[in-house]
Model the fold of this input.
Amino acid sequence: MEIKSVAILGAGAVGSYVIWGLSQLSNIQLGVVAEGERAKRLKQEGIKINDQIYHLNVWSPTQAHGVDLLIVCLKYGALSSTLDTINTVVDDHTVVMSLMNGVDSEEIIGQRIGMNHMIYSLIKVASRKDDGYRFDPETTIGIVFGEKQEPYHSERIQAIASLFKNTGLHYRTSDYIQEEIWSKFRLNVCNNLPQAILGVGVGCYQDSEHMKFIQDGLRQELEAISDAKGIDLTKADSSSKHGSQVPAWARYSTLQDLDAKRLTEIDMFSGALIKMGKELHIPTPYNEYTYHMIKALEEKNEGRFDYCHDHSKMTCSK
Done:
C-alpha cells in the first residue's frame, strides 16, 4: 500500500501542523477540504504557519472523493455536522485518521462510514494563534497512531509511517493506541479544565493545594471509568516515554476558548465522562460540577449575565 493523496479536514491548529509537515513532500497530492466562504478565503489567502504562507489545493468534498488518506482535524463541536462531508470524501479504500481530542471521535465517524476505514490516533502539539498558527517543530511530541487490535503493524500503519518519514513531523506507532488516547484524555480533563474555571496558567496545580484537590478528583473519576472499560492506562504510561515541558503560565485549549469567547469542547471532556459514568453506574460529581461551571462561563461570555443595576433603563453603561 502506498499513500499518494491526502485530504485534510480542518485547517486550524492541528491541521496546520499536518499541513506544515506534508507540504515538504512533492510526490503526493495534498489538499484541504472546504466549501463556501471558507474555501474562498483559503484559496485567496492560504494558511499562515510559522510566518510562512502555504497555498494548498482546496477541494470540495466531491473533489476530494477517493483520496488515500483523510485526516480529520476538526473541533469536536463541528464533527456531527461534518459527517456528510466525511462520507462524501471516503471511498472503499480510503483510510481515515482522526486527530481530534476526546475518546470517541473514531466511533462517531466509524458509525457513519464503517469502522474498517478508521485508524486510531492522537496528536500532541502546543500551538498558538495570532495572525497565523505557530508551534515549535522541535519540541512538538506529534502524532501517535496504531491499530486497535492485531495486526498492529498492518500494511496501512506502515504506509502512514512511510508517508510521515522525512516530513519533519514527529510521529510514532503504538501497540496500545486506545490506552494512549485515554492517557491524553486524562491529561485534557485533569489539566485543561480546572485552570479554565480559575482563569490562570497551569502552574496553579503546583501552587495551590485546592486546585490539586480538584485535579485529583477529576482524575479518580476518569480512572474508575477507564478501569471499568478494561483500559489499562499503565500500558500508555510505559509506552509514552517522553512529554513536553510546559511553562507555568501556559493556558490550555479550554481556557484559550473561553478567553476568545468561543464555545469550548467541554461536551467531549466532562460531558462524555458523565455519560459513560451513568452507563456504568459510576458517580462523577467532580466532572458534573466542572461541566456545568464551564457551560455557565460560556453563557457569561455570551452576555447572559450582563444585568442592569437600573431596571428603569433598557441599556447599561459599561
